[in-house]
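Worked example

This section walks through a single chain of length 222. The input is the sequence exactly as stored; nothing has been trimmed or padded.
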Amino acid sequence: MAELAVAQVTAARSLDRLSREMTDFKREMAQFKDEMAQFKDEMASSWERNDRARADDRRDWEVRLAEDRRDWNRRWGELSNRLGTMVEDLVAPSLPRVAEPYLQLPEGYPIETALRVKRRHPADPSRTREVDALCSSPSTWIVCEARSRLTARHVSAFAQGLAELREFFPEYRDRRLFGCLASLAVEPEVVTFAERGGLLVLAIGDELMDVLNSPGFVPRAY
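Given that input, the structure is written out below as tokens.
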């Protein structure tokens, strides 16, 4: 009987201890849930603040982008207008200086220049050709085409059409013809490509337009 009483007391104590442990565990779990709920609230508040900040940043970015776009369009419009007069402003003042070494001018003979020259074909008036600039001497004439951006495709098309110009300018039929291309800036590989076709290449430099061809380059007579 004594052993049974001891066992009952021991079991009661174990149950009481287990009950207290369960109560503590439930209290800790409740506290943990409260902390988790608080953490979630804080995270939601943080995300909401971040969302508002991102929305504000995006609005600021969109405003800046719209302003930059308007500024870019304005500058591009100004540049386009300037490119429309590139022949008159840059090529025309430079071409006689650039062309002189190739024109074989008689002493005292002035360099003849012309801009925006448009001709109809003598035998077929429906065909027309226009050159941006040309200069000439009794033995040679140089035709220059200006491009805002010069590519290898432009070089090829220009070279292919050079020989045909004699049909539109019969007064120059018996003179050597050199081709010249001018742009604001030209990539080195494009200059190399143009040199293979015997063409002069000009771009903005220290003296308005400078020759970009290699030293000693000899243009091809078409």
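What to look for: Residues 1-83 form one domain.
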